[in-house]
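Re: beginner question about structure tokens

> Can someone show what the tokenized structure looks like for a real chain? I only ever see the sequence side.

Sure, here's an example I had lying around. Input first:
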Amino acid sequence: MGQTFTAIFEKVPKGYIAFVQEIPGVNTQGETLEIARENLKEALGLILQCRREIVEKEIKGKETIKEPIHFDEIVTQ
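And the corresponding structure tokens:
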């Protein structure tokens, strides 16, 4: 099962700006909604990849436990 995030698209004079509600820093723009949507997917993938690489460097050589956490297990208030 994949993760689900909320994409927000705002119409502006030159197209659309877009961001992911749940993850600060994932934002982009596009001349059309379709372009903004594709750019946002790419931005999200890059941010997640970058964060994984940063964390891997931070935990290298440390005793850690890694396990998957499924989105439907997260409880929100």
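Each token stands for a local structural state, so reading them left to right follows the chain. Residues 7-73 form a domain with the Double Stranded RNA Binding Domain fold (CATH 3.30.160).
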